[in-house]
Specification:
Elements (H helix, E strand, L loop, with lengths): L1 H37 L2 H26 L5 H4 L5 E3 L5 E4 L15 H11 L11 H14 L9 H10 L6 H17 L2 H10 L10 H9 L8 H9 L4 H4 L5 H17 L5 H7 L19 H13 L5 H6 L3 E4 L3 H11 L15 E7 L6 E5 L25 H11 L7 E4 L20 E4 H6 L3 H11 L1 H10 L11 H6 L8 H12 L3 E3 L4 E5 L5 E4 L5 E3 L3 H16 L14 E8 L6 E10 L2 E8 L17 H12 L13 H8 L4 H5 L2 H44 L1
Parallel strand pairs: 1-3
Antiparallel strand pairs: 1-2, 3-9, 4-5, 4-14, 6-7, 8-11, 9-10, 12-13, 13-14
């Protein structure tokens, strides 16, 4: 009863409020209508809308006419060029520059399949299809976005040639106007030929002629109905519907195309029933154009454009773009040559070659100079170990997560660290030195140069693990709560792991006075009209270390190549700083990963060696300085001559120690103090010898007398 009473009271209050508000709303509406009529706002609004529409139409028409569609056919034959750091052409992407064929050289089966699937009124419209546009407009009104459909073959050609892949109403309108202009300048057969010669069919293949060779080992003129339908089916999504990667999905999509051919009277139902039961005989006779000179670098450029700048792969490779990069061709060629020298790389016990990957980076700009993502056969747009791989870093993490933050927190190269077998935490985590020996206390610089584990973990525990984690993030490494362990931050047992690119970028900080610049391949992307689509020429620097700490880190890391674990890997005639790292197998001897990173003020080179899948037989039997370090030394000796060979602005640790002790050893030998001590020692020795000689003569004389006396008595 109480609830009913409350509801009744609420209804009365709402009704009273409405009775009060209603007269005001009526008066407002009456006044608004009089005001609207007085100023003829209906006509004004209509005129405004029409003016805007007319202006927009004029603008789109202007854009379409200035696109210069007369050169479309020639423009589609232009490659996307890669430009190196010095402005020289370095090659081109595997784009639409495949085999160009005329419509007469393309099977009727393929022509019929593409028309039935993509644009069944192709030969009847003038660039746009009102029915298709209506269908697409309805989709836009119901979903709030352009969902596809409605684009004719001519519109698709316009999009591929001039426009981005963005699904927006503005782009669709531009596409329509461009299609009208294209239809004015080219015949239907010419349009269809350009379209079929420039469609993307996956695996780096463009155009139906090369697509036919890639998947079926025959020219496009010989395609069967089933094969033609398969190629046309791939137009919806080459990666999803190509028969090499997704055979079953390709068959399903092919059958959909076949059904559309039935619907458009190109096939009968009986033919469909028969052909749809066929499998596919895949044959690869595709011979790509050899202008993909530096495949791992070019692949990395494509990936960066896609994942960093949101560009479409088809758009990137099909528009005749000019892509400016940080590529140094001399460095890349030397790195490529080293990877063809099998003697530089290790093998498993059964003879299986180890994998490897390297990145060369300019620390002053963050630009990647060269990259190799693996050994053996290269796979187009395949796995790039230099950029995509994630492996545990081992000891190369020590300078980043322990020693740099330690110097920031008051430690110095000469600070004494505890070198004892020590347990930490509730789990009694006990790091061990690889040698199995412990010295009680060691200087910080010695602990780093010899890559001792026990003092490194002790040091991290002293400064606090949070400081190590924070510093690693500043160096650009991915670190999360799973890594909040002494062994992870100090010795490299990380959950996510790193790539050679991550490693090179982190160490570039030391080479660049404590400043890190995000690594990149691309500096600019410019379209065929000169419009700058991407501009990364002014990368933002990040201060990671102050100058003093950075100088001390350079001293420490120079010592690694001078007297430490990487001493045998220092390139002849060059001064290099850096670090080695090895990830030991959990069960059994040997290692799963070897790392080395070395740098000068002009260059950072980071390399990894190991097996994609380690096993009881596939592992590395030595340490980094004996494995990946051998290749590193060779590479640096061949790359450094092409650099400015800038010197470090700090002394080595051993040189500094000598100065602290009063000068060089030679100076000490020549010092008056030492001469005085030596002269005094010589005089004392002379006096001792003289006295000893005198004692010897006196003793010998006495012995002689005794001997003569004995002989005399013996003779008697």
């Amino acid at each position: 009863m109480e609830n009913n009473s409350f509801l009744e009271q609420a209804k009365r209050q709402v009704k009273a409020f409405w009775n009060w508000l209603a007269p005001y709303l009526v008066r407002f509406w009456q006044n608004f209508r009089r005001w609207w009529r007085k100023f003829h706002l209906t006509k004004v609004s209509l005129l405004t809308v029409l003016t805007i529409a007319l202006g927009f139409g004029i603008y789109l028409n202007y854009l379409s006419r200035t696109a210069n569609v007369e050169t479309l056919e020639a423009g589609l034959e232009e490659k996307t060029q890669i430009i190196d750091v010095s402005g020289q052409e370095a090659g081109s992407l595997n784009s639409q520059q495949g085999s160009q064929v005329e419509i007469e050289e393309i099977s009727d089966n393929l022509v019929q399949a593409v028309i039935a699937t993509e644009d069944k009124r192709f030969y009847r419209h003038r660039g746009f299809d009102l029915i298709g546009i209506g269908r697409a407009s309805l989709g836009y009104l119901t979903t709030g976005r352009v969902v596809g459909g409605g684009s004719t073959i001519t519109q698709q050609l316009a999009k591929n040639a001039y426009l981005s892949a963005d699904q927006t109403i503005i782009r669709k309108l531009r596409e329509l106007f461009l299609a009208i202009e294209i239809e004015k300048n080219y015949s239907k057969d010419q349009i269809l030929t350009m379209y079929l010669n420039n469609v993307y069919l996956g695996h780096g293949v463009w155009g139906v002629e090369d697509g036919s060779q890639k998947y079926f080992g025959k020219p496009a003129s010989d395609l069967t109905v089933a094969e033609a339908a398969t190629l046309v089916g791939m137009l919806k999504g080459p990666s999803a519907y190509n028969p090499i990667d997704n055979y079953d999905r390709a068959i399903d999509r092919r059958n959909t195309v076949l059904q559309l051919m039935v619907n458009n009277d190109y096939l009968t139902e009986d033919q469909y029933d028969e052909i749809s039961q066929y499998g596919l005989n895949l044959v690869d006779n595709y011979d790509p154009i050899d202008d993909y000179r530096y495949p791992y670098y070019f692949d990395a450029v494509i990936s960066e454009a896609i994942y960093k700048y949101g560009m479409d792969e088809e758009e990137l490779m099909n528009r005749g773009y000019t892509i400016y990069t940080s590529l140094n061709q001399a460095t890349q060629q030397e790195l490529d040559a080293s990877y063809r020298n099998d003697s530089l790389f290790a093998s498993a016990q059964d003879g299986t070659p180890a994998q490897a990957a390297s990145v060369a980076l300019d620390p002053q700009t963050g630009g990647v100079m060269a990259v190799v993502g693996g050994r053996g056969d290269y796979t187009l747009r395949g796995f790039n170990r230099a950029t995509q791989m994630r492996r545990q870093p081992g000891s190369v993490i020590k300078p980043l997560g322990v020693y740099a933050p330690a110097l920031e927190n008051g430690y110095h190269p000469d600070s004494l660290l505890q070198d004892e077998l020590t347990s930490y935490g509730e789990t009694d985590y006990t790091p061990t030195n690889l040698s199995g020996t412990y010295q009680g206390q060691v200087p910080l610089h010695y602990a780093l140069s010899q890559s001792l584990n026990a003092p490194t973990v002790w040091l991290l525990n002293e400064i606090g693990i949070d400081k190590g984690m924070a510093k690693l993030k500043e160096f650009g490494w991915q670190v999360d709560d799973q890594d909040r362990q002494l062994g992870s931050i100090a010795l490299g047992g990380m959950s996510h792991g790193i790539s050679p690119l991550n490693l090179a970028s982190a160490y570039s900080t030391f080479a660049n006075d404590g400043v890190r610049i995000e690594p990149h391949f691309i500096t600019q992307i410019v379209d065929a009209t000169g419009n700058v689509l991407v501009d990364n020429s002014q990368s933002k620097p990040h201060r990671v270390l102050n100058q003093q700490v950075n100088d001390e880190m350079n001293q420490l890391l120079l010592d690694v190549f001078d007297t430490g674990t990487a001493a045998v890997n220092e390139p002849d005639g060059y001064q290099v700083a850096g670090k080695t790292g090895t990830t030991q197998r959990e069960n059994g001897p040997g290692a799963t990963d070897q790392w080395i990173v070395g740098y000068t003020p002009d260059l950072v080179l980071a390399s990894w060696m190991g097996f994609d899948e380690s096993s009881e037989t596939h592992y590395l039997s030595n340490y980094a300085n004996q494995g990946v370090g051998v290749a590193f030394k060779y590479q640096m000796e061949h790359i450094l001559p092409y650099t400015n060979q800038t010197d470090f602005n700090v002394d080595k640790i051993n040189e500094e120690d000598q100065e602290d002790d009063g000068g060089s050893f030679l100076d000490f030998l020549q010092s008056p103090e030492l001469k005085e001590k030596v002269d005094s020692a010589i005089e004392s020795t002379k006096e001792g010898l003289a006295e000893g000689y005198d004692q010897f003569k006196r003793g010998a004389k006495e012995v002689g007398k005794d001997l003569v006396e004995w002989l005399r008595e013996f003779g008697q």
